[in-house]
Write a structure and sequence with these properties.
Elements lengths: L3 E8 L4 E10 L2 E11 L6 H19 L3 E5 L7 H20 L4 E4 L1 H9 L6 H12 L8 H16 L12 H7 L6
Parallel strand pairs: 1-4, 4-5
Antiparallel strand pairs: 1-2, 2-3
Helix pairs in contact: 1-2, 3-5, 4-5
Amino acid sequence: MATDKIILGIDPGTNIMGYGLIHIKGNKIELIVMGVLRLEKIADPALKLQKIFEKVVHLIEEYKPDELAIEAPFFGKNVQSMLKLGRAQGVAIAGALSKNLPIQEYSPKKIKQSITGNGNASKEQVSEMLKTLLNFKETPEFLDATDALGVAVCHHFQRKPGTATKTYSGWKSFLAENPNKKI
């Protein structure tokens, strides 16, 4: 297990996409940057997806992360919302795969459990715990940024020596592991 690596966390969304990058140095976790991509003023859904793809690629090119961790869409009653969120997640994953970045997805419950010890924790509780863990003071305007940071930290916490996790290093490895997926 690498003791010096950068993890990019993504909280996908079609109106606001959160992102956070952490640097792992031995047993220490440092905040690099967190923020949001605001898309609510863009009317065209396809253009929103293009902006998500471009932002993920830009973050990878700028910060050179070793891995990407992304929040999985949760199952809700609104099928249209789930579809939009799934598209946003897929485009973010495609951005990472286009740069041959290994990816891992985590459920919202797993992320909250990993950060706070409570799988039903609120966004505010996750944010407060991350402030303590990563030693930052200000709560961002949008909790999507700390949600994304939470995905990255969760990924780090889940990566224990000797445990297998499913990651893909590019389109070929994704397709090899998922031969029945329709593209």
